[in-house]
## 1
Amino acid sequence: MGSIAGEQELGPDYQTIFDPSTCVRRGLCPVTQIRNKGDPFESHSLYFEQHGNGPEKIVFIMGLNSSSFTWAPQIDHFGRMSKYSALVFDNRGVGHSGSPRGPYTTSGMAEDVVTLLDYVGWKDEHSLHVVGVSLGGMIAQELATRIPKRIASLSLIVTTAGGKPWTNLPPWKGVSSLARLLATTEPSVKIPIILDMLFPSYWLEEKAGNDPSGRTNREVQSETYTRRIELTRPQTPIGALSQMSAGLTHYVSSERLRTIASSIPKVLILTGDEDHLVDPRNSIHLKSHMPWAEYIRWDRTGHGIASQWKAKFNGLLERVFDEGRDIVTKRSNLLPE
């Protein structure tokens, strides 16, 4: 089982954006060491944090070239509720985790998650609520094929089953934005590109709800992303390009999608109508081959769905978690003694 916060000393470089009062443990999972692989170019550890210590265990899997800090609105919510334990981590190639030699694959990144879950002791049957966004949703699909019996609910957010590399490319605005982001390290240049890529432009110019200063959504998000960049290690070029490679080569067949949908008690597919990184039609494709899944599309919504509508998003996840647990309970009650 992994170390609790007080047992694993992390240096001053390992800063966090999350509230330390809700943190149960954090550390580095020595993925390569656990797998007994000795290639120094492949060696890496995953940085993780657990917030809350409740019985319902949530695994949040972040998307392309983004650290776990992007889950701040969710950890601030679920980490304070006695019902939940929330696990966040940096995928290989970003944040405080290692950047092994690429290219990466979503299947390999899913194997990282299995190793982490084993390390922290989250092995019980139907104990997990898995939430994956974008590339994290692709990883979540691969995870669900590996440990389906551990999962009570699976939420696939603004993601895709993939296909050929050229069909996995984002819409043009997403492609051009990602190319520009690779060409700069200056936060004042990066942040406007990120915001215009993740959110509808008109929403960015609207007044932010519940902001005492009356700022726009753009101003609030700019401050949020500035803080994240300040606390996150700069991503290496190999990490950025290797994660992109994982997204471009991802593919889960229709047959595998049906198997996932039939083996996981509750599956949610959520998308927005103005996504510049993952075409919303990909969620329709997921639904067509996962007939038992719940499909939802939100209007006026971009790729940054979990931040754009954080209260609505968190509320939806709560319902999905409850429904997944209810299905598991009902099925167990039907089993013969």
Note: Residues 1-7 have pLDDT under 50 and may be disordered.
## 2
Amino acid sequence: MLMCWILFLQELPKLLQDLATTDADLPWNKSKNRFPNIKPYNNNRVKLLSEPGTAGSDFINASFVSFIATQGPLPGTIFIHTYWPEDNKPMTVFSDILISKVSEEAFPDWTVRTLKVEKVQTAKFT
């Protein structure tokens, strides 16, 4: 196991050629970084849907790993710990967001899930 870890660490620089974090340093994104020394790599950061005319609206200090992880989320940040449906449920609902599991492939050390995320209309009863 130790040898596998050493080989992984030797190959890591090849996997992460672009280690720039300049997106996090843009003036409109700086306030979104809780810690000034913890920033996502430009080539691996989670990109939100941008709002036209709003600089930095696609930025959140989070990176894709084998799951989405935030680095030092701010106190007002919404964070969902488990966002995919449980094994015995086809879907999960969070407020007006419906998350369905499209596929799942299990590997020895991780699982790859394809999810469908939809905004649903909520019924109003009077």
Note: The beta strands are 45-47, 59-64, 68-70, 91-94, 97-106, 111-119.
## 3
Amino acid sequence: MSCRGSPLKLEGIILPVPASTEPEVSLAQLILDDFNLEKAERRLCAEALSSAGNIVGAAALLGITRHALKRRIIKLAIEWPPRNASRPSDAVNASAGLVR
């Protein structure tokens, strides 16, 4: 299709909108106690990790890459994964002394 000379008019054309590939997750509103940016960032990261259950999902909720989230986990000293052994493999690793 060539549109040399006159502009192409898109009136009456309906383009399909692709379905979102991101999971629909509703996060509760966070109310901040003060304007401390580091505390707010720590709380957002912790809430996203808790809600998603893993780094990839939490990063998607926050709209950042997993590498960026890992950097924030280290910078903000967020304990991840949590120390409570919720998976059987965690209990095995803990008894073998392999837990970080």
Note: The chain is about 40% helix and 0% strand.
